Every structure is written in structure tokens, then in C-alpha cells.
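Please, structure for the following, as C-alpha cells.
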Amino acid sequence: MAANTVETGLEERWRDILSVHARTMCEIDRALHPHGLGASDFEVLDILAAEAPRQGDQCRVQNLVGRVHLSQSALSRLIGRLEKDGLVERSVCVEDRRGVWVALTPKGRDLHTEVMPLQRAVLERMLGG
């Protein structure tokens, strides 16, 4: 009986986490939509801004895998869209031709700076104490 209670408690906590995540992602999507971004788009821009803080800095795409909640192929498609929109640029890693670098463009860096307060306000509203 005790194991069932523990198991049920874990399931409920897990579902609560998923629910908060889903609601928060939807709110971020709504806040960023007028700027042409979704929550996952912003997440990639935000990680790139942190990992490659100066203009010209690059990040390996492999370093993004596992940090965003997308499959590797979905992440590649997302980066392709961001590149098409002029927000990031990709290049092949010279040392390892299988590796791909990605960097924020000035346009991407500016957009990230513009919308970051919107995303942070959603996080504060949804997750703040």
C-alpha cells in the first residue's frame, strides 16, 4: 500500500511539472509571437547569447542538444529557420567536418536583447514565488 502511495505521489508531481512547463511555454509563445519567435526559438537564441556572449563567438550545435527540449533533427530545422530569418549563421567546424558551429548575427543578438525582458516577465509571472 505504501509503495502505491509513493508511486501515486510521484506521478502527481510529475504531471504537475509537465503542466507548469506546458502553460509556461504557451505563455512565452504568446508573448514572443508578435516578434516572430516561439519559446523554442528564444531558448536557442538565449543559450547562444550565454555561450557566445561576444559578436563573432560561436557555439557547437552539439552543445545545444540536450539543453533544448527538441530532438536533434528538430533542433537542426529550428536553426535552419533562424538562419533563414537572419538571426543565426552556421559554419562547418574545420577540425571536425561533422561538427557545425552556430553564432548569433547582429540581428539575432538585437532581437534577443529586445525580447528577453518579455520572456523573463513570463517566467516571473508563471514561476516566481
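The CA atoms of residues 29 and 39 lie 5 Å apart. The chain has a mean pLDDT of 91.
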